[in-house]
Amino acid sequence: MNLILLSENRQRAAAGRVYIGLVPIARSGAMTPQPFALERVPTPIGRMLVLTDAQQRLRAVDWEDYEARMHTLLRRQYGKDAVQLQDARQPSTARRRLEDYFDGDVAAIASLPVALGGTEFQRLVWQALRGIESGTTLSYGVLAARLLRPEAARAVGLANGANPVGIVIPCHRVIGANASLTGYGGGLHRKRWLLDHEARWRPA
């Protein structure tokens, strides 16, 4: 698991937010927005949005037809007007690894660095998601039990839905207790495709 944990969270702690891999900017009047590079990447299941920071860490992965939701999650993560999206000047490492993933090298994204915000519980869930092996699935209940919170399956589901970095933090690998494909932010057709793709190319 490669979520980057940093401790400089003091400025936003009072607001109830804890940040991973993000150094908040001190609030002295207007706050300078953080620049994130945006790439629009063609894939077999639609155009994908990839956001990275100056350190080449992933900040968001979403789908072009869900761009409004991506902006909503960014506001929740970092605050209103705290992020400025700029067209990437050159392909990022994350883009190249994701392209490799879609070409069949499903392990290519396993070590990609990710930096994002969220509550302490959300971070625990997102870290646990990165521990689900490609080509396998877990139920919300099993994932909650792995976190030693067996009563928190619903909360795990909500954290799953708030994940801003799809595919790399593989919320699509979580299914219903009866093995049904429950909701996925990119649409159930994409969830089904991703699971089939990973099962097909799972390393021996």
UniProtKB/TrEMBL annotation:
Domain Methylguanine DNA methyltransferase ribonuclease-like, residue spans: 42-115
InterPro entries: MethylDNA_cys_MeTrfase_AS, MethylDNA_cys_MeTrfase_DNA-bd, MethylDNA_cys_MeTrfase_DNAb, MethylG_MeTrfase_N, MGMT_N_sf, WH-like_DNA-bd_sf
Keywords: DNA damage, DNA repair, Methyltransferase, Transferase
Superkingdom: Bacteria
Single GO BP term: DNA repair
SUPFAM superfamilies for this protein: Methylated DNA-protein cysteine methyltransferase domain, Methylated DNA-protein cysteine methyltransferase, C-terminal domain
Keyword Cytoplasm: no
Methylated-DNA-[protein]-cysteine S-methyltransferase DNA binding domain residues: 120-199
Catalyzed reaction equations: a 6-O-methyl-2'-deoxyguanosine in DNA + L-cysteinyl-[protein] = S-methyl-L-cysteinyl-[protein] + a 2'-deoxyguanosine in DNA; a 4-O-methyl-thymidine in DNA + L-cysteinyl-[protein] = a thymidine in DNA + S-methyl-L-cysteinyl-[protein]
EC number: 2.1.1.63
One Pfam short name: Methyltransf_1N
GO molecular function, one term: methylated-DNA-[protein]-cysteine S-methyltransferase activity
Protein family membership: Belongs to the MGMT family.
Protein name per its UniProtKB record: methylated-DNA--[protein]-cysteine S-methyltransferase
Originating organism: Achromobacter arsenitoxydans SY8
Lineage: Bacteria, Pseudomonadati, Pseudomonadota, Betaproteobacteria, Burkholderiales
